[in-house]
Amino acid sequence: MRNRFWHAGALSLVFLFLLGCAAVDTVTTVATEVGVATGQISRQQGESIKKSSKAVAKSLEDFTPEQEYYIGRTVGAVVLDKYRPLANTKANNYLNVLGQTLAQASDVPELFNGYRFLVLDSEDINAFATPGGHVFITRGLIRCCKTEDALAAVVAHEIGHIQLRHGMKAIEKARMTEALTILAQEGAKSFGSQEVAQLTNAFGGVISDITNTMINNGYSRAYEYQADGIAVTILRRAGYDPGALVEMLEVMAGRIKPGGSDFAKTHPSPEKRIAELKESGKYVAGGRTPQVRTQRFVSAMSRL
Amino acid sequence: MDRVRFVTICLSLLTLLLMSAAADAQKVMSIQVKEGHLRATPSHLGKIVARVSYGDRVSVAEERGDWRWVSLSRKTQGWIHNSALTSKQIVLKAGQRDVATSVSGGEIALAGKGFNKEVENQYRQGNRNLDYAWIDRMEAFKVSPSQVEQFMAAGRLQPREEGGKP
């Protein structure tokens, strides 16, 4: 009996020590192992303790960049179900070099499969960025840009959404727990067909959460203002005119149609976005793009 | 006897923990991008001196801003941006010994598992309206570092700073 008491005391001491120097997850596992080894708790109890502590720890970080890439591919395919791609090699090549230049100036220049950009053949004013690094911009939105710097502002805003993981944050909490619970089961074994079916189901849920937010409802205003903030930072870092965002928003204000199903529905108005930039001290007036950049922009996008 | 066994278990677990702390000090990290480039200088414009791939374990010897000087082997060394690195160990096949015996699932990521090609294919069977042809075409667009360099020079773009804190 005395022996038992000594065990329990020592066990709590060890537990406290571990708590001080390791992640909770590790602590639980190690402490549980000690408990099992010394007969304080059964193997079965140990397993369930480990499982429940792991369920609590599930978060966005548990999705690997590789999984985000696959989520991004399908989100992109859903975007392309709504909007036709523009098969204009010159415009797409130009957009990709511009986008790559901007991505390098972001805080997340490296994605699992890098950044890719595509022009969409639509008069709508719209743009999308998937968690996998696929960025889509409509002709209508490119027409709101008078200079390369203005287009850079549009692209940098989309990169901002990727950097801040806004797409992934649109996944409903319950869905995330469900998906990550299935993902966690695969630790020691390969997947059978039943698990693949379960996973595919969860995958479909994740895709509809993201595309519903991105295409239909829009992110929160706060997310849009955050992406604008990142855009100004990226423009400045890359050597572009940081005022180009305001320059573009001013043109957009004159073109956007109230009641439309594009930015008019999913984004705060251009006026509000400009006001927010002023409020947060990020406002800079535009109009400082050198001629050489405006010329190549016009040349690449002239046929749009 | 029971007490001896208990003390031994505790001590060995503590040793393990301290060893993992020591390993942390050396900072072994994994490449979390499909293809990574190691560069001669800590910049995206730095010359590419070696290539690394998904799951490669590299040791970090120096940090400068968001850049890390890493080595995979004596020949494969150079600078890489920290967004290409993770502290998780990436295991290339499920069911490997180290997965089963690892302390915590949170420290391990399984390559090619979870939401993967297989799940995408399964999903596509149920959503035949979706066309991935343009996603594949889009992913085939490649921009070389020299293209970016020329684009910047021709556009008189003088970067103030790169990603992260300089």
Explain what the structure shows:
The complex is a heterodimer of chains A (304) and B (166). With 304 residues, chain A is mostly helical. Helix content of chain A is 65%, strand content 4%. Chain A contains 15 helices and three strands. In chain A, α2 runs antiparallel to α3 (43-56), α9 (173-185) packs antiparallel against α10 (193-217) and α12 (244-255) packs antiparallel against α14. The longest helix of chain A is centred in the C-terminal third of the chain and has 25 residues, at 193-217. Chain A is globular, with a radius of gyration of 25 Å. With 166 residues, chain B is α+β, with helices and mostly antiparallel strands. Chain B is built from five helices and nine strands. Chain B has a five-stranded antiparallel β-sheet. Chain B has a two-stranded antiparallel sheet with strand order 2-3. Chain B is flat. The model of chain B is unreliable at 94-105 (pLDDT under 50). The chains are: A mainly alpha (304), B alpha+beta (166). Chains A and B meet through α1, α2, α4, α5 and β1 of A and α1, β9, α3, α4 and α5 of B.
Multimeric status of the protein: heterodimer
Percent helix of chain A, as a range, is 55-70%
For the sheet with most strands of chain A, the description reads: 3 strands, mixed
**Structural category of chain A:** mainly alpha
Residue share in β-strands of chain B: 15-25%
Structure class of chain B = alpha+beta
Count of DSSP-assigned helices of chain A: 15
Helix content of chain B: 25-40%
Shape of chain A: globular
Tell me the Rg of chain A in angstroms.
25 Å
Count of DSSP strands of chain A: 3
Strand order of the largest sheet of chain A: 1-3-2
Mean pLDDT figure of chain A: 85
The number of E-state strands of chain B comes to 9
Q: Cα-atom Rg of chain B, whole angstroms?
A: 22 Å
Outline type of chain B:
flat
Assess the beta-strand content of chain A as a share of residues: under 5%
- Largest sheet report of chain B: 5 strands, antiparallel
Order of helices and strands of chain A: HHHHHEEEHHHHHHHHHH
Low-pLDDT residue spans of chain A:
19-25, 51-57
Summarize the helix and strand pattern of chain B as letters. HEEEEEEEEHEHHH
